[in-house]
Automatic annotation (TrEMBL), chains A, B:
InterPro entries: 6-PGluconate_DH-like_C_sf, NAD(P)-bd_dom_sf, PDH_C, PDH_N, Preph/Arog_dehydrog, Prephen_DH. Keywords: Oxidoreductase. GO terms for molecular function: prephenate dehydrogenase (NAD+) activity. The keyword Oxidoreductase applies. Pfam families: PDH_C, PDH_N. This is Prephenate dehydrogenase. Belongs to the prephenate/arogenate dehydrogenase family.
Length: 317, 317
């Protein structure tokens, strides 16, 4: 039988995990702090409670995989209860900043059973009603391969990711956070700066077309969401932002003194071209638990590798 | 009878103007310096020559509207020949930096007959074969309303713009150039900087999705084109770039010292929201040649106004 799944937090992401796991035939149940989210899940025919203690007691009885799907600030209190009531359950999360979550989990003494995760799926809307079982279909879902990660828990979390229809991308937590700063948080800040700059120029909005529309699209995201992701990843975002600002400052200097933006434009075009042909290979040969398996997975993920089906274990060979 | 049209330079934009004007039933003929472009136009059944003198002599005989569609560096030599052979013809251009072109035209003593223009249409490919009569359909086409502009020449150029299926946006040359810096040239530099920054981060391309793809799309544009537009508009691009860099520097400081990017994110979201609901009103009441008509048009264009059909003249009322 597949591992039962207990989802803590039934918003867009948690609610979608609950639905997808149920659709895959698993025993599923969820907890939500507010009665609204719980009632919405119950009304849709799912097993949900607003009583954390009963949810965790049941998780412990069933040895369920616990999925942390609450905002990061709510984690420490939740982890304290997990340690008290369900310390032996495998544990994962679906939040966006991996190092901060790992720190909280480690502080609660639960790292041994924890393998972090981050589904790269849309967040334009929020709450239980916005979720659906197909939200993660085909999307990359980062699964952490930090030094402490246990191969059995890893296999358990991977199984859920594949049940949700995602492809798993193995990564170390700090590498995930640095990449997220570069490909998600920095683009948001650049888009905001572009929107503000153009707003001050008479005629700009009257003439704005493709490059402005694309370049500011993510500035349409709710400010609270943008702040939470950028501010929660400040240690990685600051050096990334510094790098982008240094590139712009060099281009500015070169434009002012030599009437040229050749360096930035040539390297930018080359980088974008490289991105367009970035390979996506399937990872099939790494054996979970063998020597150096975590390092091998992190290297494969970095090179564009994804996991599309269960990986072998020493037992399964 | 509609004013005949003589297009100088039969690349993507010039070639498309020639086709659109012919499709509107006008007498049209073109000049191209290289035999390749001329032969391609001839093979498609259009009237084209590589002999500038004969093209301009004919333009003078027909009092044709001359359309400058050559790269900016080629303008001074071309304008010299126009002054010699066709100084009384109405004159417009279809290049992207309006103040520099106006300077060249003024230096050649042809400002009296000149009304600048800039169709905001795609430039991903180039050359005669890439063009077509529908290229400008529905696109904004800037028409300049600088202090020197003559109402009769303005009406003649406007007529061509409308024949090409575009909506005309009246603007002063320096305002056009400042707006182009903010909505086109700055987005290109930000996209290049984002692509270069992410390229240096392991795992970034492996996880890159929507916000990175959108934010770097224009970094896929040919470097020569990006350089030409940015470097040709340096006087306007430099202060625009400074403004964006100052906004990013403020956000960086606030993130480092207060763990907050609230200011940038809130103003960016507000600006993007304002852009999404920017009005597009039709300009119908300005009478060409009446007191203050240029100022009235520039103000209307700045507020989002567009011209969709011929404007009244003192004679026509």
């Amino acid at each position: 039988m597949k591992t039962p799944v207990c989802v803590l937090g039934l918003g867009l992401i948690g609610g979608s995990v609950l639905r997808a796991a149920a659709a895959a035939g698993r025993v599923t149940f969820g907890y939500n702090r507010s009665a609204d989210g719980m009632n919405a899940a119950l009304a849709d025919g799912f097993d949900a409670t607003a009583d954390l203690e009963s949810a965790l007691t049941r998780a412990a009885q069933l040895s369920a995989l616990i999925v942390l799907a609450v905002p990061v600030p709510a984690l420490p209190a939740l982890l304290e209860q997990i340690r008290r009531l369900a310390p032996d359950c495998p544990l994962t999360d679906v939040t966006s900043v991996k190092a901060a979550v790992l720190d909280d989990v480690t502080a609660a003494g639960l790292a041994e059973k924890f393998v972090g995760g981050h589904p790269m799926a849309g967040t334009a809307h929020s709450g239980w009603p916005a979720g659906h079982a197909g939200l993660f279909e085909g999307a990359p879902w980062v699964i952490s391969v930090d030094d402490h990660v246990d191969p059995t828990v890893f296999a358990t979390v991977l199984d859920l990711i594949l049940d949700c229809g995602s492809v798993a991308v193995p990564a170390r937590s700090e590498e995930h956070d640095a990449a997220a700063a570069a490909i998600s948080h920095l683009p948001h800040l650049l888009a905001e700066a572009l929107a503000v700059t153009a707003a001050d120029v008479p005629l700009a909005f009257a003439l704005a077309a493709g490059s402005f529309r694309d370049g500011t699209r993510v500035a349409g995201t709710a400010p609270d969401l943008v702040r939470a992701m950028c501010e929660g990843n400040a240690p990685q975002l600051l050096p990334t932002l510094d790098r982008a600002m240094a590139l712009l400052a060099e281009a500015r200097e070169s434009l002012a003194t030599e009437s040229s933006v050749a360096d930035l434009v040539n390297t930018g075009h080359a980088a974008r071209t490289r991105y367009e042909s970035f390979p996506r290979n399937e990872i099939v040969t790494v054996v979970l638990g063998e020597d150096d398996w975590r390092r091998a997975l992190a290297a494969a993920g970095r090179a564009g590798g994804v996991i599309r089906s269960a990986l072998p274990t020493p037992d399964s060979r």
